[in-house]
Amino acid sequence: MLFKPTHLATTFLSLLPAVNARLRTCVPRDLPTIEVFGLQVVDIAAKEHRGYEDWRPSPMTGISVPKRPIDFCNFTITYTHPGQGDRVNVYVWLPLEDWNGRFLGQGGGGWTAGWEMSLAPSVAVGYAVAITDAGHELSSSLADMNKTRSWMLTSPGNINWVLLQNFASRALDDLPKVAQQVVKGFYGEPAKYSYWSGCSTGGRQGLMSAQRYPKNYDGIVATAPAIHWATFVVAELWAHIVMRKVGYYPPNCELEAIRQAAIKACDELDGVKDGVVAAAGLCTFDAKSIVGQTFDCGGEVRKISTKAAEVTNAIWEGPIRNGRQAWYGLPHEAPLTGLALTECDAGNENCKGKPFIASVSWIRDVVMSGQDIDLSALDEDEYWNILHRSVREFASIISTDDPDLSEFKSAGGKMITWHGLADQLIPVNGSSDYYEKVLALDPDARSFYRYFEAPGVTHCAGGPGAAPNAVLDTLVKWVEHGIAPETLDAATVPVDEAEAARHRPLCLYPLVAAYVGGDLAEAGSFECAESFDVVKRHTEL
Ligand SMILES: *[C@@H]1O[C@H](CO)[C@@H](O)[C@H](O)[C@H]1NC(C)=O
Ligand SMILES: *[C@@H]1O[C@H](CO)[C@@H](O)[C@H](O)[C@H]1NC(C)=O
Ligand SMILES: *[C@@H]1O[C@H](CO)[C@@H](O)[C@H](O)[C@H]1NC(C)=O
C-alpha cells in the first residue's frame, strides 16, 4: 500500500520537488526533504556501487537467488526523535536498473535490528530494500555481551528505555516511512507494493508491524518469530535451572545421544523413515527409558545417566511450576546445544552450564537492569520471580503477542509465518499458540494470515528437514495476484553433491504432509492431511 498523506507529516506532499523526478542520482542533496512525524533527519550519506560482488546468498532472507554482480545506490539516513537523544540509521539500497517496483524491509536477529547481509540478495532480485539499526550498532551480535550491555543501559541500574523501545517497536514504524520517501525521491514514483521479510527477531519485527503499524506493509513474512519475548527468553534458561537442581551438568555428547535415541524412536511415527520427526505431537519418548544404555562420547563408552535423562525430559516439557506449564519446551528432535550447552574439561569431565547468551543478557541487563547476578547460582524460586518480573515489566513493550490483527486485515495485508519443528532456540509451539489465538479471535483469519510448520528444520534454516526457500515470492503471489498458499514448497539442502534434494510440501497448519506412496524425494508423494493415519507404511534408509 502506498502511504496516504494522513500517515505522514502534512507537509510531505507539498515539499516534494517534482524536478527531482527520475533523476536516480546517488547524491544526498538530490533527495527531497524527508518528513516523518516525530523524527528529524540529521544526516544523509550516499554511495554508488557498480558490479558489486562482495555478498553471499542467504536462506535467512526469504529469497532464493544466485550470486551475481549488482548495481545499486546505498543511501544511509540518520535521524533522531528530537528530545530523546537517540541516533538511528536506516540503510536503503536501491537497484540502479531493473527495480521491480517494490519496497522490502528486511529484519534482524538476536539483538541486531537488521542484517546487512540481507540487503544485497534483495537488490539482486530487484527490490528497493532497507534495514534499520534501531539506534544501536548493527554488529551488536550475540557473541559480544559487552556491546549489548553498552546500549541496553544508560548506566548500571538504568535501562535505556528509548533504545529498548526503538528495538522493540518504534524504529520498525520509522523504517518504511523513511525508506519509502527515499524510494520515491530516487525513482520519481512510489513503490507499488511494500513487503517485510525476517526470521527470529526479524519474525518478531514482522508481527510487530502487523500488530501496531498495520498499514505499513502489504505483505509480511514473519519466520520463526521471537514472539512472547518476555516469556520465552526467560524460559530459554530453564535447562540450566534444572541442571543446577539435579546437580549435574551433562556433557553435550550425552544430551546428543539422548536426542538421537528420541529421533530414532519417533522418526517413523509419520510413516517415513528419514531421520525427521514430522509427527512431533505423537512423540512421547521418555529419556528415562534409556538410562544405562551405552553411548559414545568422543571415543569413550559411557552410560546414559538418570540425571541427564531428568534434565532432557525437563527441556522437552518446558518450565513447569506446581504442575502448570509456564512456557513450551523444545520438541524431541531439536538440537540441545542451543539452550542446554555445557562446557567441560578435557575428556568431557567437570562440565559447567553455558546458558544461551541472548537469554543471559535479557535477564541480567534488562530484567535485572544490569545487576551482577550469578545466573548459574539461581534457585528455582528466584527463577520464577525473574520470569514473573520479565512479563510484568516488559511484555507490553516487547512480547509482540497481540492476536488482534483486525486493522492489518482491513488494510488488506497478508502474512505468512513458518517455523522449523526442530528449532533449538525458539520453541515452535509459541508460533502455533499465537496462530491459534489469532484464529480464536477471527475464525476467518486464514484469509490473510497463514502458518506452516517445517519438520526437521532448525532455527530459521538448517537441519535435515525441507525448508521453504522462496517464501517472499509466495507472498507476492498472494498479495498481487490473490493466490493464497495452501502449501509452501520446501526442499532439503543436500550435504554433498552425491545427495539429491528432497522436496516436500509444508501444509497449512494444522494439516500435516502425509506420505501417500512414491518417490520420497518428490513433493507429489505427500498430501496434506488432518493426521498421519492415512500414511502408507514405507521405509527408507
Ligand atoms: C553503505 O553506507 C554506509 C554509510 O555510509 C556504510 O557504513 C556502509 O559500509 C556502506 N556499504 C556499502 C556496501 O557501500
Ligand atoms: C567485557 O567486560 C568485562 C568487564 O568489564 C571485561 O572483563 C571483559 O574483558 C570484556 N569482554 C570483552 C570481549 O571485551
Ligand atoms: C506442542 O504442540 C503439540 C501440538 O501441536 C503438542 O502435541 C505438544 O505437546 C506441544 N509441546 C509442548 C512442549 O507443549
UniProtKB/TrEMBL annotation:
GO MF, one annotated term: metal ion binding
Keywords for this protein: Calcium, Disulfide bond, Hydrolase, Metal-binding, Serine esterase, Signal
Keyword Chloroplast appears in the UniProt entry: no
Pfam families according to UniProt: Tannase (PF07519)
Signal peptide: 1-21
Keyword GTP-binding assigned: no
Name under which the protein is recorded: Carboxylic ester hydrolase
Organism: Friedmanniomyces endolithicus
